[in-house]
Amino acid sequence: MLRRVRQSLRQVLFLMARRPDLLCGAIVLSVLLVLAVKFTCSRAKNVVAAARPPVRFFSAEAPVVDLYLGQLDQVERLRSVAEVSLIFFYAPWCAHSMAAGQEVQQVAKKLAKQVQFVAINCWYSQGKCRRQTRFYQYPIIHLFYRRFGPIEYKGPFVAQYVESFILRVITPLTYLPSRATLEEFLSCHEPRVVGFFQFNSSPQPPGYITYLSSALQALRRDFRGVIRFGVVTNKQVAEAISLREDETVYLHRRFNSSLIFPRRERNFTSQAICSWVFEHRETVLQWLQPLGTKSRLLEQELTKGPALLLFLPHNPLGSKPNPILQQVADIAVRYHSCDNNNHSGLDKSFTSHSLCCQSVLLPESSTSVCEVCLSWSRPSLTSSSLSCSFPPTAQGGDGLQSYLRYCCLHQPPAPMSIKTATSVGCSNFLNSYSPFSQYSACCRKVEPQLNESQAKEGPDMQRVPLTPPSLSTPPSSVPQHRGDGITGLRCQTNRTLRFYVLDVALNWPLAVRLGATGNRTAPLHQEAGTPGDGSSNGLFAAIVNLKDEVHYVLHRSPAATLTESLEAFIRNFSAPYTLLQRHLVGEEDRKGGEQEDRHPDEHQQTSPRPLITELTTSSFLPSVMDLQKDVLLFYYTQWCGFCSVLNHIIIQLARLLQGNSTITVARVNVARNDLPWEFMVDHVPSILLFPRYRKHLSVKFPDDLPITLPNLLRFILQHSGSVHNTDKQVTSSVKADASGPGAILHAEFLSLQREVQALHHARERLSQQLAQLWRDNRRLTFDSRSLEVQNAELQRERQSLEEQHQEKSRQLGEAVRRLQELADTSESLLNENTLLRILLRALKDRTEAREQAEVERTEAEQKRSHMAS
């Protein structure tokens, strides 16, 4: 075989030596073949479909100049011919741009005569807008007022809000021609800035343009235009706010002194005026508009302290002021008004201010009686407008008793009758810090028989029982104070609130997450307060305390007005011991309140009992605190991996206890359902057992014990409740009086019988599971044996394959060696062939030279013979 290969190689080399053109042709064909293969394989990667040419984004009827080819150079030309211009940067594929384009088109149809609307495609790769601008999101709206701009619009892309912003840019200043308009302008709760410029000396004072630019700068920082700028040109009108010098900027403030821009300390520029206004403004009611994307705007505001979030319907284009917003603003202004709210001095007699008193008899002396009176901080209040409430210590607390003993026993009061009594032992008792009231104590000696004539006392003493208000009424609707009790509350409590207003139509999902129910209110085009806007139910209020991780929801009473409900809500939160109840948000609330809450008993009647009861915030207490059932509660979350591992154990336990009607296996997702603090756990997964008849003695599954099916059964049987564990003061005493001890024994016997039956059922199920496990173990044994036999066969096959592999490797090595020898031989043959060719060529040249010499000699001889003849 090797000899044939050598012969073939010699023939090929010989042909190539004789025909070199064949070698060149073979090389050319090989190169062409490689190029054809490469071109065929890479054709799909190199060919890309050309982008479609851009088309108009707005319709032809819309009064919008659509630069869909990205002609950025034309924007400057269009902007120069208009006083106010709106530039809409969009991407044609962006869904937000499509939605915002429809809103902008609506606004353009209304304001086309006043504003130049221009839209430009900033996504077209060949356009200048794509190459010269760097936008990270779309759409973008820029407004230009003459040469000032751009003013970027950062509000919601809703037609009413965009139109309101454009109108603010068109008229950034409010002209104030008279004192009446000036007073009306300054009466609003929002910050107000007034500029005084006289137009007598020149058509346009030099500082007026700067003041106008500062108003536009404020719109650049706040798209809502909360800070309004007014201008006064009449000197008599300016004197109403003590402005006498021309080109003066005045910042009106309610709670502190109003300010005048310090031109000697700061440069009179638009940026300096705008910064000065934002630094010294007073904000009592702040609009909040979450961006709807990932941002920390809401978190930054809530971390500042407790916040009162007010969701109300708002129409930015409303011709009339929103009545709900006016009421809320009035409450916020009075809440922040801290003047004329100081408490009465301690040197004044408490009897001139006290409205509610309670007599306390000291056990040390039968003639010493101390009267504890509640003195309100506002002396102008009347007794009819207050609801008296004493602390529990007034009924015999140690702190109050010790104070009264010291007051009455160490300071001898003068003997007196109840009609002409004047106490010398009066002082104030500070039971706890309260922004509303202080307690005072006066001691005197009276005759015991005079206690029967207490009803004859004057109207200044109102005897009330020491009981708190009923808790059945919602805490937010129980007014502790009426009238003007909220005025200055911000400076009387450490629990200061910040007021935030949100548009309920734009932030309805956030309101639902906080506890709002029902459907969202009327659309934006309806004015608040008009029929159909739900003005009576259009307000949702919640206090969020991020530090304490609680929030409270306002529950309005039908009989109370909005002002009364909000004031009571704020006062109850500001009290040292608030009566407000923490609002718990459950999984059904997160779904928007679409599903109605249903009691577990009703659920069992309408549908079969589930294997594991899934609890929510609303169904937690009725299910767990059921006295007739032992409840095994499993705390879990959807992101907990250990909880998922234990699911099959909980399911097996529920199947074992399925026939027992006295034991309920339940679980609750604590990540989606808020629970009362006393029912929370420090980690998940956790298992708690609430035994029947003694729910107050709940037991937690030991952390050091593995969670297995036998351990759970042992835990339930050890701590489950029975009839003899019932509350003797509530349940068993009533049953004992009604039926006697025989009924209790009979009930206990029935309970034990049911428990024995349940244990029998559990034992049968365990026996079946053990039998199944034994069968599975036997099957696994047979399978393991067969696997061992197969493994042995595989080992033998592996050894034979390894031997074959070694033999083949040896043969391949031998073949490689022979091929190497063949290559060496071929190379030597090639060298010999080359040498032979050289020799043949030399011989050929030598032969040709001889033949040429012979020919020349023959021709010379012929020539000589011819010449001789």
TrEMBL record:
Q: Which SUPFAM superfamilies match?
A: Thioredoxin-like
Origin superkingdom? Eukaryota
- Could you tell me where the Basic and acidic residues compositional bias lies? 588-604
Mind telling me which Gene3D superfamilies this protein's record contains? Glutaredoxin
| Segments for region (Disordered) | 453-487, 588-609, 849-869
Q: Which residue numbers delimit the Thioredoxin domain?
A: 49-175
Q: What is this protein called?
A: Thioredoxin domain-containing protein 11
